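Lab manual, section 2.4: Encoding a predicted structure.

Procedure: take the sequence of the chain (104 residues), apply the prediction step described in section 2.3, and record the output as structure tokens. A sample record is shown.
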Amino acid sequence: MKEKLTKAYLSRDAFAKELAVSAKDLGETTAKQVAENECRQLKVMNKQLEDKTNHMSAALREMHQKLTDSRSYIENLHSLLNGNQATSVKVESQLSRKEPGLSE
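Recorded output:
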């Protein structure tokens, strides 16, 4: 009977050790799964940020092009205005030489 009791204790100890190992494996597996889930979430967030960055970059390039086009248009208008003013000064000068009384 003592042998059976000793075997029972040994079996119980072996079973307890197996349970401890299983619990440790389960803990490691759970930690690994948590880390993998966090990694997947970070990858998704990274992809979303990359998409937003690409969208914002495209919008910035478009806005820059519009501003460049507007600036070119304004510079063209300014050039035309300067040309019209020069022409106006020439015409006034020619008129004042032809008819001195009209310049007043």
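Check your result against the sample. The chain has a mean pLDDT of 84.
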